[in-house]
Sequence to fold (278 residues):
Amino acid sequence: MTDFGLFQTQNAEMAQLLQRAEVVAMTPAPVLISGERGVGKTLLTQLLCEKGQWTQGLKRWDHQGRGLPELNSGDWVLIEGLEEMDSYNQVALSQKMDELRAQNFRIRWIATTAARPQQLFAEKKIRDDLFYRLSVIHLAIPSLQVRPEDILPLSEFFMKMFSVMRNRSGMNFADSAAKKLQAHTWPGNVAELENVIERAISLATDDVIDHDLIQFDHPNERAMAQMGTTLSDMEKKLILQTLQLTRQNKTRAAQILGISIRTLRNKLNIYREQGLVI
Fold:
């Protein structure tokens, strides 16, 4: 079975996307990742890094603040929220790409957007030349709404993970809770589902998650945007807490998390590159 970490799926389109991502990870081509808020665009970026042929480190272009950090050959650069990048930073990015290419730097560019790429292009929200340079490969993550077969498996996955984090075991969903989860439209995608399951686990007084513990919010756009950034952070927190529970036994931690020991080591290497002491 192919190991995609938190990307648990029974949906054919999603499985095909993840398999394509594995192939793409081994190439140096720039990648544009699109999808609604909360589908896991940053998480897919980390998956590409884990599967990639060469990774010096993952760095972010902060186009709303400090700009681009100092780069080394072999770095991956993540540009989040491409639709929000102003014209000044677009020019600066294009010039930097030219400069690094002239210096023979090997840089892997990954951009994400919550907008449809065709919309970015048609509405002139991004320079034509920059759009073409960043979208050599396009990976579009489908929303949870169009893959209903993933709702219960993901719910079970998150229940297991939060149970581990809270040192509880043997929890399960009542039939009424499962039906309520399946009936929801999930405008906040997987990030919203994670939020709902964490709340249910936190409120549960016994091992059965009943329908009254499945509570939906109606967050505003700002809250939804914040929710959409939590998946990769949640994965990191989950991995570190599982390692703590297993007293740093990586083999046991990987078994609990349902991932391979190789994937666990790759994730830990990425966290170290981000400055985390493990």
